[in-house]
Amino acid sequence: MLGFSIPKLLLLLIILLIIWNLFKFLEKKSKSRALNEQKDQYDEEDLTECIECGTFVSKTEKKRCNICTNAFKK
Ligand SMILES: [Zn+2]
Fold first, then answer.
1. Where are the domains of the chain?
2. Residue 60 contacts residue 66 (beta carbons within 8 Å)
3. Residue 14: CB partners within 8 Å, gap ≥ 6?
4. For a tag on the chain, would you pick the N or C end, based on fewer CB atoms within 10 A?
C-alpha cells in the first residue's frame, strides 16, 4: 500500500481536520472583526446634509458645514 498504513492515514486525516477547523475559525474571526470595523466606521461617519449647500457634514456640526459657517460670519 505504498508505505501507508491505516494509523498513518487516520493521523493524516485528523491533522487535516484540525487545519481545516483552524482555517474556518480564523476566517470567521476575521469576518466578524471586519464587520465590527465597518460598523464603527459607520457610527463615526454619522452624516447629515448641510442645510445651506447640501454638503455632507457630521451631525456634531449642527447641520451647517464649515464653508457655510465661514461664509455666514463674513
Ligand atoms: Zn454648507
1. 6-73
2. no
3. none
4. C
**What distance in angstroms lies between residue 38's CA and the mean position of ligand 1's atoms?**
27
Q: Is 56 left (phi over 0), alpha (psi -120 to 50) or beta?
A: beta
| pLDDT tens column, 36-53 | 777 666 555 678 888 888
Give the cell for residue 68.
Answer: 457655510
* CA 72 to centroid of ligand 1, rounded, Å: 10
Question: What spacing in Å lies between the alpha carbon of 52 and ligand 1's midpoint?
Answer: 5
Tell me, rounded to whole angstroms, the distance of Cα 50 from its chain centroid: 28
Q: Per the confidence metrics, is the pTM higher than 0.70?
A: no
The DSSP result for 20-66, as a single string, is: HHHHHHHHHHHHHHHHHHHHHHHHHT-EEE-TTT--EEEGGGTT--H
